[in-house]
């Protein structure tokens, strides 16, 4: 591929991945604000739980709602709308003087996160040639991780700015959200969507800019064959017998990604560190270590995903997660926390997640569904993902408190064993093939 075209593709993917950055930021920023919004809004523990979760409820709604505009108005226009909602939500939640106003704007932020979590990987998957798709879609995961790090870091910097500190923390997101909105004017629309809308000339232009005229002609013919009509299909088609096996792949990967327990570690790491007796001061450093390892191993995954394939990464990662979770579970049962044992195994866990199901779940969900049904089928898989994000974040503190860390990490460890078995025996490899080839292999077997 020519340098210039490669750059064009990379820039478009990076712009779309800004949606991932906002997703990461918005989900993580709240953790630093809780000590301040709880007294400000006079919240009980349960009230705080719901206030924090309002974003996740918005995500589920956002994913459910965004498939339709994504098909009608295009991936790019819908992402632009989401960017504006991000701006409004940042401003509204930062300025809120009443609880219902705060919750409402966080809920709208959730709608934007849900929309971006679906359309950013979808868009990248639809503009990428098969042999680079894994790495480019993983840019979205890289951006999520960077967004989480930015949130943790800006929270840390702003914590000492006085009573309005939480307002500043929440408002930080406004800037990247504006940048996202503007940058989306400089990227092309998805060629697969353009074909669906019978804008064949425009689709050809985008494809030839990315892969050259010859390849574009071939790809266009393939896409046109796979999208025989403008009709985007119905949910009945998504749940049809023909599509069901693929839908199950998407939903299971979404389910397993969350049942590894990633978010209980990402968001409750400081509490876990305190529970095992490390000082609060070092808790911050440890949280930064978690972020850094997450970032580094996402980069490793990006290098390997199109070379090794999706399955080998999932297998290596699942083994790493099983070992680290079971060791942590054992340590909690035996109350044997000496030294930095737990920290080391938490980092092994994060590295294993970041190299495998973190990025791979999003990549596979964005590539396995046929062109005509992609929006709707992806939305079913991603709603599953957000539902389990919600359930795990809501129940983890209770499980930790009532049953203890041994049981909590033990459950996640068993889930990773099931993931490993599933990947080895059932999951098809999807590396290197165009979306249309995958459609032939997976749907029209
Ligand atoms: C997951 C998030 C998680 C993040 C952590 C994403 O792929 O969907 O739930 O917080 O990775 O890096």
Task: Describe the structure in your own words.
The protein has 20 helices and no strands. The chain has one domain (2-187, 230-442): Up-down Bundle (Growth Hormone, Chain: A). It is mainly α and 445 residues long. The protein has helices spanning 3-40, 45-72, 75-95, 99-127, 133-158, 165-171, 174-183, 191-196, 200-211, 213-226, 235-238, 244-259, 262-275, 280-304, 310-334, 341-355, 357-367, 374-402, 405-425, 435-442. It is globular and about 60 Å long. It binds beta-D-glucopyranose. Beta-D-glucopyranose is lined by residues 141, 144-145, 257, 262-263, 266, 294, 358, 389. Residues 141, 144-145, 257, 262-263, 266, 294, 358, 389 line the site of beta-D-glucopyranose (BGC).
List its traits.
mainly alpha, Growth Hormone, Chain: A, single chain, 445 residues, binds beta-D-glucopyranose
* Structural class designation: mainly alpha
Mean pLDDT: 92
Number of extended strands: 0
Q: Can you give the helix content as a percent range?
A: over 70%
What is the name of the CATH topology?
A: Growth Hormone, Chain: A
Query: How far is the N terminus from the C terminus?
Result: 31 Å
Small molecules bound? beta-D-glucopyranose
Unreliable spans: none
Give the tally of structural domains. 1
CATH superfamily: MFS general substrate transporter like domains
C-alpha-based Rg, rounded: 21 Å
CATH architectural group: Up-down Bundle
Largest sheet: none
Query: What portion of residues belong to β-strands?
Result: under 5%
CATH top level? Mainly Alpha
Order of helices and strands: HHHHHHHHHHHHHHHHHHHH
Individual helix count? 20
The shape is globular
Oligomer: single chain
């Amino acid at each position: 591929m020519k340098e210039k075209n490669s750059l064009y593709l990379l820039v478009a993917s990076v712009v779309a991945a800004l949606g991932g950055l906002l997703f990461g930021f918005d989900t993580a920023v709240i953790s630093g604000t809780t000590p301040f919004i709880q007294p400000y809004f006079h919240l009980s523990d349960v009230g705080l739980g719901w206030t924090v979760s309002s974003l996740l409820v918005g995500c589920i709604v956002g994913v459910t709602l965004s498939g339709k505009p994504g098909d009608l108005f295009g991936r790019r226009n819908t992402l632009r709308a989401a960017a504006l909602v991000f701006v409004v939500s940042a401003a509204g939640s930062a300025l809120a003087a009443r609880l219902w106003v705060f919750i409402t704007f966080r809920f709208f932020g959730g709608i934007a996160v849900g929309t971006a979590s679906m359309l950013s990987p979808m868009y990248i998957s639809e503009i990428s040639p098969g042999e680079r798709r894994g790495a480019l879609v993983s840019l979205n995961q890289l951006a999520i991780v960077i967004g989480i790090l930015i949130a943790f870091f800006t929270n840390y910097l702003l914590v000492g700015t006085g009573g309005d500190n939480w307002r500043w923390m929440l408002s930080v997101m406004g800037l990247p959200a504006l940048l996202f909105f503007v940058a989306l004017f400089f990227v092309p629309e998805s060629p697969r969507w353009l074909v669906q809308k019978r804008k064949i000339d425009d689709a050809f232009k985008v494809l030839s800019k990315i892969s050259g005229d010859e390849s574009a002609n071939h790809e266009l013919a393939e896409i046109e064959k796979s999208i025989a009509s403008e009709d985007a299909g119905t949910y009945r088609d998504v749940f049809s017998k023909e599509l069901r096996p693929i839908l199950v792949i998407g939903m299971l990967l979404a389910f397993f990604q969350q049942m590894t327990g990633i978010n209980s570690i990402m968001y409750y790491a400081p509490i876990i560190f305190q529970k095992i007796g490390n000082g609060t001061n070092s808790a911050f450093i440890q949280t930064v270590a978690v972020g850094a390892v997450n970032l580094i191993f996402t980069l490793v995954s990006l290098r390997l995903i199109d070379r090794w394939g999706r399955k080998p990464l999932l297998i290596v990662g699942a083994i790493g997660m099983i070992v680290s979770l079971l060791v942590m579970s054992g340590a909690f049962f035996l109350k044997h926390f000496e030294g930095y044992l737990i920290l080391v195994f938490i980092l092994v866990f994060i590295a294993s997640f970041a190299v495998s199901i973190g990025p791979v779940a999003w990549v596979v969900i964005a590539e396995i569904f046929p062109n005509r049904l992609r929006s709707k089928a992806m939305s079913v898989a991603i709603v599953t993902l957000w539902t389990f994000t919600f359930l795990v974040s809501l129940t983890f503190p209770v499980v930790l408190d009532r049953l203890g860390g041994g049981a909590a990490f033990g459950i996640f460890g068993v889930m990773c064993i099931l993931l490993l078995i599933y990947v080895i025996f059932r999951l098809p490899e999807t590396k290197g093939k165009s979306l249309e080839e995958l459609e032939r292999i997976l749907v029209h077997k």
